[in-house]
């Protein structure tokens, strides 16, 4: 049962990540979407302010920061054979997510990304618990956590699709 739960964790996590912040559901070619266009054509290497960063720009920025790390999670087959290595990759994704969230200033996107990270961290904590003590798996708690990650990923996908 614990191995099946860990395999389920891998599948749920991968699906949520790929559907949400690693998805390509944003950024029309014009780079303008959503509320407030703030800055117009000025290019700057600094992070835009909340008023100046469009939703499309914020989604593109977030996606760019987490995409490579999310790809690494797609092949988390070592979750069963080497749970500690898998947890290390999950933590690496969290660091990439933090970098992405730090670069997002858009008021529509940032709270969705932060909510995803909160749900993600809760699920990773549950996975870490499974790795340490597979016999004490709380399937119900994990399922709830996984659902929260999936919903948060959908919320990002929705805000980035507009």
TrEMBL record:
Xref: PROSITE patterns: PROKAR_LIPOPROTEIN (PS51257)
* Cleaved signal peptide residues: 1-26
What are the start and end residues of every segment in region (Disordered)?
Answer: 25-56
Biased composition range(s): Low complexity: 42-56
Alphabetically list the UniProt keywords. Signal
Q: Which domain of life is it from?
A: Bacteria
The name on file for this protein is: Lipoprotein
């Amino acid at each position: 049962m614990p191995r099946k739960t860990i395999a389920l964790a891998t599948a749920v996590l991968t699906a949520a990540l790929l559907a949400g912040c690693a998805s390509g559901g944003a950024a029309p070619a014009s780079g303008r979407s959503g509320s407030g266009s703030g800055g117009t054509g000025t290019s700057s290497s600094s992070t835009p302010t909340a008023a100046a960063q469009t939703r499309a720009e914020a989604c593109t920025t977030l996606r760019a920061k987490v995409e490579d790390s999310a790809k690494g999670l797609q092949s988390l087959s070592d979750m069963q054979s080497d749970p500690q290595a898998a947890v290390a990759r999950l933590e690496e994704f969290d660091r990439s997510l933090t970098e992405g969230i730090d670069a997002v200033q858009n008021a529509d996107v940032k709270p969705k990304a932060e909510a995803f990270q909160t749900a993600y961290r809760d699920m990773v904590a549950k996975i870490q618990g499974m790795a340490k003590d597979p016999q004490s798996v709380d399937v119900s708690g994990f399922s709830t956590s996984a659902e929260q990650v999936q919903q948060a990923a959908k919320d990002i996908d929705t805000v980035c699709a507009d």
